[in-house]
Design goal:
By secondary structure, the chain is an all-alpha fold. Helix content is 56%, strand content 0%. α1 packs antiparallel against α2. The longest helix is centred in the first third of the chain and has 24 residues, at 8-31. The protein starts with 7 loop residues before the first helix and ends with a helix. The model has no long low-confidence stretch (mean pLDDT 77).
Length: 86
């Protein structure tokens, strides 16, 4: 599997930017002055919505083995508390 973890910030922030630009285009399209912005807003928000589910957008995408990791034995909360500083 290709390690796309280092590209995580670029992929995630590009999708967020597409969403913001799509919303901005939608607001402009409501004024009626630039009719092409309605189609552009639809396209950008759909692309942003579809790309949101990409595996590089997940919080642990920087870890190359995040899809292959398995838990061998469960960890109790008592064992986990010292690691969390509680």
């Amino acid at each position: 599997m290709i390690d796309i973890g280092p590209l995580h910030p670029q992929i995630v922030h590009f999708v967020v930017a597409l969403g913001f630009i799509g919303v901005a285009f939608r607001l402009v399209s409501l004024s009626g002055k630039l009719p092409w912005t309605k189609q552009a807003a639809t396209a950008l928000t759909l692309i942003a919505a579809l790309e949101q589910g990409h595996e590089a957008a997940c919080p642990d995408a920087s870890d190359a083995d995040h899809l292959q990791r398995e838990v061998d034995e469960p960890i109790t909360l008592d064992e986990l508390a010292p690691a969390l500083g509680q």
